[in-house]
Every structure is written in C-alpha cells, then in structure tokens.
Amino acid sequence: MPYEGEYAHYQPLKRIVESERVQQLLRRSRVLDQSNLSQQAVPKIPPAADASLPSLVLAIDGSHAEVDVRNGYPGAKIGYCSVASVVLNLAEVDRLDASRPISPIDFRRTEEPSSDASALPGCNVITRDHKSAKDSFREAAFELLHDAIIDEEDSTRLLATYQALLAYKPTSAITCPYPHLGCERDVTIAQNVGTCPCELRKPLYPTDALRIHERFNDDSGSNGEAFGLVMTAWERLLLIHLLRCFEQRDWLDRLKNIAFFLDGPLAVFGPPAWLSAAMKRELQRLNTLIRAKTGNDLIIVGIEKSGNFVAHFEEIDKREDGSQLFQLGSYFLPTDDYIKQRVIFSDSTKPYGDQTYFGRKFFYKTQSGARIVANIPFLSAAQDSLSTNDPAAFQKFGTVCALLDKLVTSRFPNALGPIVSAHSQASIPLHLGQKVLKQLAKALMQAGSR
Q: What is the mean pLDDT of the chain?
C-alpha cells in the first residue's frame, strides 16, 4: 500500500509495462480478430411508436457515500444511501414547448422530485447490544425496508414488497450470519424476523436472504460495495413497490399513461442476484393483469451510463473512413451470440445474464445523435430470449425509442433528462420525506381533469 499522496512515477510504470512477465501475459491473452467475425451489428429503424406517448415519466436513481465518524474507534465509518425519483409531466412539457421560449421557472414545475435516505453502520460502528459492526449493518438494512413507507394513505411498507419477492426465492436457507459467534450451521430465513436455532437465539432478519452482509468488512477499509448493493436493491424494489401499490388501489389501468425509467441495467448482481428472477416473475404477473385491463404492456426502461456495452456502442459506431454505422433514429438488439463474441467473451451454454438480468439490452441512436444503451424488461415468456434481434415480441419497443428521442438532454453526453434530475436529487436529497405515489396520483388526477 502506498503512503498518502504517494504515486508511482513514469519510470517504474514503464518498467512494469515493458517487463517480460507482462509481455508474456499479453501474448497469451485472447485478441479479437475483427476480420473473422460472424456477428455484426446491423442497425435498423424501430417500429412505429404509439399514436400518443405516456403523459408522465417516473425516473429512479440512487446514490451512496461513506464518511468517517468519531466514536473513539479508529477507522469508524457510516454509509449514506439515498434513492430519489422524479415525476416528469410530459404533457405539460409539450404544452410549454408549443409556445417557446419557455420560462425556466415554468419548466422546473414540470418535474416533481422525491427522495429518501438512510444511514447504515460501517466499519467499527456497533449499535445497541450487537457484537459486531456487521450485525449492526444487518439490522439497519432490515430497518431501512421496514421503515420505508411510500404510500402515506395506506402505510404500505417497502418491506411488504420485499417479502412478496422473497416468496419466489427457490431456497430460503443461507449460512448463518453469526460465524463470529461460533454458529456454523445453515439457517432458514423466514418472511418475518426469526431467531437462529442454536443456543444463542440471535435474530435473523428477512433481509439476511440478500446476503449483502457477506460483502461487509468488519475490521477495516471501505464498505462501499455493501452500501452499493443496498442502494441497487432499494432502487429496484421501489419500482416493483410502486407497481404493486397501483394494483392495491385498482389503478392498473392508469399505468398506460406512465413510463418508468431506472438508472442502470435491469439486473441485480452479487449475493442478492436472486432478486432478478423474483422481479421478473412479479413483473410478468403484473403485466398480465395490465394487458388484460388495457391491452398494453408496461413501459419500463433501464439506462446504462457506463460499462462495456456503452464503450462497445461507441466503438462500433465509428468507421475507419470517419463515417458512423448508426444513422439517426436507428437501433440494434444484440443477441446472445453477439454479446459473447463481441462484448463479453464466454463459451457458456447459458444465455448471457441468465442469473442476473430481468431485461434485455439494446443500442439506440437518437434523432439528436445521442448513443443510448437501454434495457427493456422480459414481460412475457416470449420476450425472455436473446436468440433474435427482432423486437416484434416487445409491444412497446417503438414507443420506448420515441421516448428516448424526447427525453435526451444536452446537459451531459448521451444522457436522459429525467435520469439526470433523479440523480441530482439522490446526490443532494433536498426533498426527504416527500412521497412519490402521492405525487403520481396528483399528476394523474390533473391529467384526467383536462
């Protein structure tokens, strides 16, 4: 480990790069032969969008940070996680757009932000009568879901949605989270708080099934990974929770007027990856009900701002002669074979992302030239495949592309306005405690009265 502020200079770095061991490793590494590729990106024009786009867009994004605290123990830290949502009134944006120039004040009123935040124990922060920081973290993660009430009128807790998804988990057995106290057995995680069957009788929380505590560092260092996993699960749980709240209020028919955008891929990684399959099942259940009521599928889109697919899209769009492969308003739907040959090498027989994704990626170049890597969910068995690059199974594919055209912003490269706004609210949560469902209900009622 270096001393603080100490960095390697050019000569040491040059020696590493030119060392024989590095060169041997590079010579053994696989190199993609561009001249021998069977999988090529062929951009196409998307199918036509619906006659009218959704009148509301709900964007969800999260943020997490880790800060030092003084409690008498060295290296003590706490984590701060926040998740924000922004409701964008597209109908009002269109109305304002018809009489330019638009007042910045009026434009800001088209967005309704909401955010919530929670503090989580980090290294060397031990609460109540717990014996370790990890046990304190586990309790705090449970309390986060238990205390989060999105709908003020019926007091539905985010924990209720998590418990519904936990029921889809194939097995509820995990390694006991108390190995530091000598328990080495497997334990069953129930829907509610239970106790370890050993003589210690320590509490077991429903959220222990996420196994995020397995990535928690008790002794020293950062717990950014654990806090990031909490944030990611929270974002995706909020999406499912809102949909279930609409179901409970018999508002499913109103979802045809709302498009949901989520920062990041439609996936869950790491120990809580089982949530992905559970969310896919729940989305398919809900979409079946919605399609029966409205004849329409849900519109849910995940947006990737960085990573291998974003880098690949940029690379393949630039030809050697300086031209671009993708024309404005064109898309490409990568298949499993394409992904494994061109983006993330694999010879596995399982589809890419089989255990982690509940949606499928596609590339879209907007009419303004922005490159967007988007995800659309598997809302039916017919959609749950990476074998074809034909989007026919996705009823709302053309509408999603039209929304991307409409929502793209020039504030950042290849960015969408609602996601940018949600991220700013998550990073600086100015509206803690405001309830997004209430804002959605208000916006829907106002739209219905016009």
A: 88
